[in-house]
Amino acid sequence: TVALTVACFIPETALIALQQWRGVPSHFNNASSFDSLVFSMMGIFIGIVVVGIAVLTVWVFVSPHPDRATTLAIRAGMVFLLIGQVLGGLLLANGFASTGPIGNASIVGAAGQLKVPHALALHGLQVMVVLATLLARTRLDPKARLQAVILCSVGYADLLGTSIAQALGGRAPLDLDPTAWLLTFFAVLLVLWGYVPSLGAARSFRVRT
Question: Contact at 8 Å (CB) between 131 and 195?
Fold first, then answer.
C-alpha cells in the first residue's frame, strides 16, 4: 500500500510541475485537450493516493507502536493527512462549481481560502513525526513524551479547525475575529509547549553523548 501510494503521488506531483514549467495552471485547466488530459490523469493518481492514505490510517490504528507517544504521533499525523484529502475534495468541488477565473477555485465566499487549511492538514503528519523523532532521542520518561504529543496534537487540531472555520466562513486567513485570535494563540502555545521541552531534552541528550 505504501509503495502504491508513493508510486502514484510522484507522477501526480510531476504533472503539476510539468504544467508549472509550461507556464499554465495545473488545476481546472481545460484550455486544450492536452491540459484536460493532464488534469484527468492527476485526478486518477490522487484518487489512488487518497485510498492508500485511508488504508494506511486504518493500519496505524490497528498496529500500535511499542512506544505510546510514537503511536499517538503517527495516528494523529495520519488523521491530519486524511483530513487534508477531504479538504482537497472540497477544494476540487468548489473549483468545479466556480464560474470565475481558475485562480478563484479555492476561494469560498468573499475571501475564504481553502488552500490554507488544506496545506496545514497535509503538513500535520510532518509536524507530528518530527516531534516523535525528537522525543525518541531524549531521556524523557514515557509519560512526559506522551504528554508532549498530546499537547502538540490538540494544538495542531485547534489551529487546523480555526483555519477551516475561517475558510468556510468566507474570511481571509488573517482576518481573525477576537475568538479566532484567541483560538490561534492557544493553538500555537500548545504546539510550542509540546515541542520546546522535546527540543531542549534532545539538545541536552546530544551534548551529554
Answer: yes
Q: Are 122 and 165 in contact (CB under 8 A)?
A: no
Q: Which residues pair with 108 in a beta bridge?
A: 112
* Residue-by-residue DSSP string for 158-173: HHHHHHHHHHHTT--T
| Integer Cα distance of 53 and 81 in angstroms | 8
Report residue 201 as a C-alpha cell. 531534552
Q: Do the Cβ atoms of 65 and 75 come closer than 8 Å? A: no
- Minimal CA–CA distance to 90: which of 121, 127, 49? 121
Contact 156, 131 (CB under 8 A): no
- Distance from C-alpha of 156 to C-alpha of 172, rounded to nearest angstrom: 19
Considering the entire predicted model, what is its pTM?
A: 0.84
204 Cβ contact list (under 8 Å, min separation 6): 138
Distance from chain centroid for Cα 17: 20
| Segment 112-124, tens digit of pLDDT | 888 899 999 999 9
Backbone angles phi, psi at 108, to 5 degrees: -115, 135
